[in-house]
Amino acid sequence: MNTPRIDFARFSQMPDAECHERIRAARARIGRKAVILCHHYQRADVYQYADLTGDSLKLSRLAAQADADYIVFCGVHFMAEVADIMSKPEQTSILPDLAAGCSMADMANLAKVERCWRELQEVLNPDEHFTPVTYINSAADLKAFCGRHGGIVCTSSNARTIAEWAFGQREKILFFPDQHLGRWTGHTMGIPLDEMLVWDPDLELGGLTPEQIRKARLLLWKGHCSVHQMFQPAHIRRFRAEHPDGLVIAHPECAFEVCRLADHVGSTEHIVKVVKEAAPNTRWLVGTELNLVNRLAEEVKPEGKIVQFMAPTVCMCSTMQRIDPQHLAWTLENLADGHVVNPIKVPGHEAAPARLTLERMLAVS
Ligand code: CIZ
Ligand code: SF4
């Protein structure tokens, strides 16, 4: 290791064209020792370098099977954590910018969830009555919490199956951090809205009465995705008025009313599959992150399909957007020189129970 580690400052103002040159040169030097993973929401100028693409779960599975020492995860922090947890001990997961977090994941943290669990204790023993279910968009210590309390992880692809398993364990679910995915999942299972109550972590007893807690089947953590909350029922109504034959597909992180008005609701993998398999010359309104929608629109254009973004304003996952050519060039150039920048290492005491819940999820779904 004779070249010193390069500081990001050297790359922060670098023109894109130079970054692209450096990315290509560094990759050639690194060869098969690293694999580049890009989430569906990743910006196009970085996505073009992906060896593997998919949703967070698919990517982690692929990473674990990959024969590379380094997993460069172009996504957000929780995804790089999952990749670390699910990969072999000798593999290293890397996040090119540590500031690429998920605002939804940050809406729940271990201290708040533990306080919720303690407060529930005042009404009924949560370990007897509640299965904790965390969306994969959450920190590793919350996955570990679920592991310790007989709970499980879900993704937007398997939420329904996971909820059925969770209800088979205990009669109630505490679902975090996304209230919308939780509510939509409960709704598809026939649970009435008044049995799905929002737990506000900033209020005493979540803002609920003991009576409400006893009656609730699903407690929905007060969290949401800042991107998916931008889609509104009015956007769907306008589209339907203009294009009566058009079809609408939304991600379950969208608000309940948006999901209810859509023809299809599903994860990013599901959205891509449905639109790709649709009949030629169909028109689609898609409610999920803009980079995915733009890419999908280009891919299906040759079949005469028209794909429109649901919101009139630009809304991207601004945190994932931080993984730009500058950060990728910085990461890869250091790696080619033998320096690992931004490794994501989940401590063993969290990784073991978190892995248990992820494996439980894989076994159930
Ligand atoms: O799990 C993922 O990758 C996310 C964030 C969404 C989805 O629906 O795939
Ligand atoms: Fe998180 Fe929303 Fe970005 Fe997905 S789109 S990673 S939920 S902030």
Summarize the structure.
With 365 residues, the chain is of the alpha/beta class.
What does it look like?
The protein contains 17 helices and 14 strands. By secondary structure, it is of the alpha/beta class.
For this entry, give a set of tags.
365 residues, 5-stranded mixed β-sheet, 5-stranded parallel β-sheet, 14 strands, binds (~{Z})-2-methylbut-2-enedioic acid, binds iron/sulfur cluster
List how many beta strands DSSP finds: 14
Secondary-structure-based class equals alpha/beta
As residue ranges, the low-confidence spans are none
What proportion of the residues form beta strands (DSSP E)? 15-25%
The radius of gyration over CA amounts to: 21 Å
What's the shape? Answer: globular
The major β-sheet equals: 5 strands, mixed
Biggest sheet, spatial arrangement of strands = 2-1-3-4-14
Oligomer: single chain
Let me know the average pLDDT.
97
What level of helicity do the residues show?
Answer: 40-55%
Distance between the termini: 45 Å
